[in-house]
């Protein structure tokens, strides 16, 4: 089959989906600005188009049968003994089966290609990630009810404000301070959970400069509805200026400052921190920011070592009696 055929097939599947979703034409999900979100949009449209291939004919057939075999239609054929049609059976079972196979293949391929833990292989559909390019690392902490972003490479941190250069891969490392949340920037990529004592990852890239909404997609208490932030897609020069502004105007984020920041608050204002304690994120992840609290990784190691240590300290077995 030729390439134009596949393009026509894709258009034939997407156009009905666009018509069905016409009321949401301005939704960010249908016009994202990041390559990962763009691929997710294509999956939504193709999946909707595939499902419409069976939904539309079934609805049309239902209406046609109701009209064709209405009581007042004396010309319709009356077949009281009809009970089987091989052609109808093939259509009824084959069409849904083929659609399920197509959806399964689409899901399998896209699940692996868009694994949030998998580093990006491309900037967009036409550009691979250049060799040697390192992603921008951003450590994300979901607090009650605000977002803390730490930039270990730049040595800064922000509250309820996130920025990244256009066309540079981003690696998010995500955790939470107390309850589970969901980190979500619809224009950038899909949502991923933030859980206390655990770290999830998300790889993404923003392809167009602009200001985009980010929020928590998982209910987490009284301030959940205002747990929002702005994500700025910038040129590299503007991003460098933004980092420099944070270094100039921000304070210091150490453990004491974090413990104060961690206290619940609603609609927290944007804050910048010029310097960040290097071990802070690791302490947040392992839930040992407070003085004297043992880190989770050390506690887990102690638990694992305990049975081995106990085995080493067991008394030697008694000598077996000599045979009589």
TrEMBL record:
Q: Where is the Cytochrome oxidase subunit II transmembrane region profile domain?
A: 21-118
Alphabetical list of InterPro entries matching this protein: CcO_II, CcO_II-like_C, COX_ARM, Cupredoxin, CuRO_UO_II, Cyt_c_oxidase_su2_TM_dom, Cyt_c_oxidase_su2_TM_sf, Cyt_o_ubiquinol_oxidase_su2
Location in the cell: Cell membrane; Periplasm
* UniProt keyword list: Cell membrane, Electron transport, Lipoprotein, Membrane, Oxidoreductase, Palmitate, Respiratory chain, Signal, Transmembrane, Transmembrane helix, Transport
The transmembrane segments are 43-67, 87-109
Any GO molecular function? copper ion binding
* Keyword Signal attributed: yes
Give start-end of the signal peptide.
none
Primary location group: membrane
Q: How does it sit in the membrane?
A: Multi-pass membrane protein
- Any one GO biological process: ATP synthesis coupled electron transport
The keyword Transcription regulation is annotated on this UniProt entry: no
- Domain of life here? Bacteria
The protein depicted here goes by the name Ubiquinol oxidase subunit 2
GO cellular component entries? periplasmic space; plasma membrane
